[in-house]
Amino acid sequence: MAITLNNGFKMPIIGLGVWRMEKNLIRDLLLNAIKLGYRHFDCAADYGNEAEVGEVLSEALRSGLVKREDLFITTKLWNSDHGHILEACKDSLKKLKLEYLDLYLVHFPIATRHTGVGTTDSALGEDGVLDIDTTISLETTWHAMEDLVSKGLVRSIEFSCLLRQDLSKKYDKSPAQIALRWGIQRNTVVIPKSSRMERLKENFDVLDFELSDEDMDLIKKMDRRYRTNTPAKFWGIDFYA
Fold it and tell me: What is the pTM of this model?
């Protein structure tokens, strides 16, 4: 099951996120995920493990476990590299051992002081607040991203950036599966992350049921405008205000 992007490329609707995935576990987790049927892997320069992911992808392709055209690899531009997009993209490609990316996302639509390609630092100013580079507009960033597509380095570009137990019983699915299915039915690509084999299987097994319109609306009403990843805590600004 996949979503067709505006440029015609298809994006698998279920992906595996590698954020905070322990480096010593990446090889087995990714190879097992591929064997289970995962084809979409969500990476980022800021996750600090592109090189480890690249080693696994290279092994999987070399061994014939999967073909490159069957994979959908996403990674993300970090804030401090908005002024060095070509170099940042090439750095990610080198680490991932790929010739092109299926999707390159702007991790956050905000440019900060450059600290070196691939360092993914969040430099703060003297006032302790995120040091924003006001000389780089989002328009400038977008045009540089478009250039990556023209160069053939990237296929697609974009800006990135709790459930009731009775529903679990009703559908005989875990709360996580209910959440993933809710996202899928909203035509949203879902990127679950797990380091446990049983959870990898569970997260992939969400295409054999459908939530009713009433339950979709019920979950929507649970919105509390709460984020578990809140930049304001470490950048000093309310990014989502």
Answer: 0.77
In the three-class reduction of DSSP (H, G, I as helix; E, B as strand; rest coil), residue 132 is classed as strand
Give the domain ranges of the chain: 2-235
How many CB atoms are located within 10 Å of the residue 130 CB? 20
Residue 172 has pLDDT above 70, yes or no: yes
Binned at pLDDT 50, 70 and 90, residue 228 comes out as: low
End-to-end CA distance of the chain: 34
Tell me, rounded to whole angstroms, the distance of Cα 184 from its chain centroid: 15
Predicted local distance difference test score (pLDDT) of residue 137: 86
The two structure tokens encoding residue 238: 């309310």
Per-position b or e across 74-99, b if 16+ CB within 10 A of its CB: bbbbbbbbbbbbeebbebbbebbbbe
* 226 a catalytic residue: no
Architecture of domain 2-235: Alpha-Beta Barrel (3.20)
Greater pLDDT, 233 or 143 = 143
Instruction: Out of 47, 100, 104, 226, pick the active-site residue.
Output: 47
Q: Which two tokens stand for residue 113?
A: 């002081």
Report the residue count for the chain: 241
